[in-house]
Amino acid sequence: MLLRAGATTTTTATTIAVTAPPVTAPPTAVVAVLVAVLLAAVEEAELALEEALEELEEVAEEEFEVFVLCKLLESE
What we know:
This protein is mostly helical and 76 residues long. The protein has a domain at 24-75. The chain is 63% helix and 8% strand. It has one helix and two strands, in the order ββα. It has a two-stranded antiparallel sheet with strand order 1-2. The radius of gyration is 30 Å and the shape is rod-shaped.
């Protein structure tokens, strides 16, 4: 169960007062920096994935060429 600061709740025989300070929203500047950092990380990951995909495509083409050559040799 989550309670806000200053709230009280009653259990079977006990009243519990929540004394933690209220949670405040972070300043807009902090959120802006976090968003910028996350966007940069996403862009970097996207570039890495694109590079990996290109490498996989190259390997697949080479593997297909080898496969075709093997099939040609088998048919002779």
